[in-house]
Specification:
Aspartate Aminotransferase, domain 1
Length: about 130
C-alpha cells in the first residue's frame, strides 16, 4: 500500500466503501477536480485506527478533506469560515472560527455549480493568504 499514489489511495478508499458513501465521495471528488484542475490530492492522518487515512485536496494549502462515516459523507473546508456561502452549502462547523463542513446523508446531493464555486473560493482564499 505504501507505493501507491495519493490518488490511488483515494480510489481504493472510495471502492472499499462500496455503497452510497463511495458514490457520494466520488461525485464530490469529481466536482473538486472540475472546479480546479490544479488541485493536488493527498492522504493525511494515516494511523492504525484509520489505515486508509483521510483524502485531502490542496492548492496553496489545504482546501478540503473528505471522509465517510457510518451515516454521512463529510467535506470539511479548512478555511470555510472565511468563505462566502451564498447557496448555504455549509451545514456543520459553525461553532468554530476556521473550518466549515458539508455533511451529506444518504439520498442527499449537493448543488454542483455552488459546490464548484465554493471550491474555487477556497483556492482563492488560500492564494490570497500566501500573498
Amino acid at each position: 500500500m505504501s507505493g501507491e499514489t495519493p490518488s490511488e489511495l483515494i480510489d481504493a478508499r472510495i471502492a472499499a466503501l462500496g455503497d452510497w458513501r463511495g458514490e457520494t465521495l466520488a461525485r464530490l471528488r469529481a466536482l473538486i477536480r472540475e472546479a480546479d484542475p490544479e488541485m493536488v490530492e493527498t492522504v493525511k492522518w494515516r494511523k492504525p485506527s484509520n489505515p486508509a487515512g483521510v483524502p485531502v485536496w490542496e492548492h496553496a494549502g489545504i482546501v478540503c478533506t473528505g471522509d465517510a462515516f457510518k451515516d454521512k459523507v463529510k467535506l470539511t473546508f479548512a478555511r470555510g469560515a472565511a468563505l462566502a456561502d451564498p447557496a448555504g452549502l455549509f451545514n456543520n462547523g459553525f461553532g468554530g472560527n476556521t473550518w466549515r463542513a458539508i455533511d451529506l446523508r444518504e439520498g442527499e446531493a449537493v448543488d454542483a455549480a455552488a459546490f464548484r464555486a465554493l471550491v474555487r473560493a477556497a483556492v482563492a482564499e488560500n492564494l490570497a493568504r500566501r500573498g
